[in-house]
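subagent[fold] <- orchestrator: predict structure for attached chain, return C-alpha cells only, no commentary.
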Amino acid sequence: MAIVAPANYEFRIRGRVSEPVLTSFEPLESTTEPVETILHGPVRDQSELHGILDRLQSLGLELVEVRKLPG
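subagent[fold] -> orchestrator:
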C-alpha cells in the first residue's frame, strides 16, 4: 500500500478570525488580509478536508474559496 503525502490547501474566510478560533485549526497556518483570513497548510485526506469544512460551517464562518495548492 502506497503512502500518500498530504496535499496543501488554502481556505479563504471572509473577515478577520480571532486568535482562539485560529488555534483550533492547527497545524494549519493563518494569514490575515484586509478583508479575509487565510488558512493554509497540509491536509492528509478527504476526511480531514471535510472535517475542516464542517468546523468552518459550525463556527458560522463564511468560506469564500478553497483551493488545492500546487506541489
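orchestrator: received. Logging for downstream: The chain has a mean pLDDT of 93. The beta strands are 7-14, 29-32, 36-43, 63-68.
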